[in-house]
Amino acid sequence: MLDQSFSAHNFDIIYGIESRKGNIDIHSMPTKYLDIVKKTKDIKSIIKELKNKEDDKSIEDLHHNKELLLELQENKKQALYEHLEEVSDIVNSSSFRFELKKLKIKGKEAFSIDTTKHTQFFAIKQLQYNLRNVFKVRQANRHQILSNIKIFLDSKIPVYVIRTDISGFYESIPQKSLIKSVVENSLLNYKSKSFIRGILREYETTKDKSLIPENYGVPRGIGISSYLSELYMRDLDKKLSSRKEIIYYARYVDDIFIILSSLPNRKTLQSYYDDIVALFNDYELTLKQPGIGNKCELIDMYSSLNLKLQKIEYLGYCIEIERINGKIDCKFRMKKEKLDNIKKKMDNAIKHFNDLSVINVKQAYRDLMDSLDYITGNIALNKTKSGVKTGLYYSNDLLDNDLPDLKGLTRYLHSRKVEPYNKLKGYEVLKSRIESKIKKIDLAKRWNERKFNRFSLEQIERMESWL
């Protein structure tokens, strides 16, 4: 049976998972625990030195320190468990509640929980675990959705395409229906249900009711909200994906993509979409209507043998579709915003070099080369085997192989002017050398090579400060 308790045992499991991801600041741990960590580090250094020595005294000391290390490791586990027992006692007390802090993200009201407080951090993680495993809810896989869309649109079968968006998704979910789904589930434990009610009460107290109606919405930005919204959408998603004319239905949070092989009798694409809008209205949700900048496109690739180039922006890509003499052509390109962002980073990297060269030209040169490698390469965000990979290739791996966007970015980079401090000795030689080095950078080639760069977290934070 699933252990849903907010216990020290479960928090210990969470600690192991989250610390491996780098999500727990070691400095937030109690002094007793930190002292043991420091002693453990010191003993490991001593052991490392003693391993290189072969005299009897060193061998004896090595054996002694290994025993000390084992003892410290046990003490560390014990200190951690004692701390988590204290955390568990507070979380399970009648006075504990989640504290929501209001903020703005891209102009929308959002919320956060102060996860530097261990009571808040471990409680919300356990609550997310309980929701995920009891209701079997998962947020859709962004990459899988895009891969499937690419396969269907590359299949050359004439189709209808609907790309749309739910207006104010998180803020529109009716709490009454949502709470009913949660409360009526006999598998979710009482404490989890109580915490969900508590979070929604806190949300009602904190939110701006002039923007979000009373008893509507889940707090945007809080981890459990994605699970609660997926739970609410489950029935609606099933109704749409089971329609025989729909060959592919995908929803990533509020972004929807539908591919139809046909339309029911006497239906136009617009009237079919109007029916979908009405279905969403039944769930008190509003879909956007076609229009410039509205994130809603209705594309008929079925009725005519020729369709001029259409561009659909979806989940970070610009999907270009056209039909010429009955043949469908689909290309995945980079969004304009992404291209502009890369150009801005290139400009900022060069500006940083120009400014710093007045003070320290060697450091300026290192920073420039590191920045350009960072912009045009890939990194792993953590060291675990399943570590998230990101960068030029891994954030754009579905691009079509002709890569016009990357070729354009290469031309843009090569056109930038590097201007080191003009009073430097050998100014012209230095400038020529740097420009020559930059002209060797080919983004299309680097995308194909999938090269990884190794940067410490500190290096990345430094580069981001000027990029």
UniProtKB/TrEMBL annotation:
Record SUPFAM superfamilies: DNA/RNA polymerases
Domain (Reverse transcriptase): residue spans on this chain: 94-319
The organism's place on the tree of life at top rank: Bacteria
Pfam families recorded: RVT_1
InterPro entries associated with the record: DNA/RNA_pol_sf (IPR043502), RT_dom (IPR000477)
Origin species: Phocaeicola vulgatus (Bacteroides vulgatus)
Name of the protein described by the UniProt record: Reverse transcriptase domain-containing protein
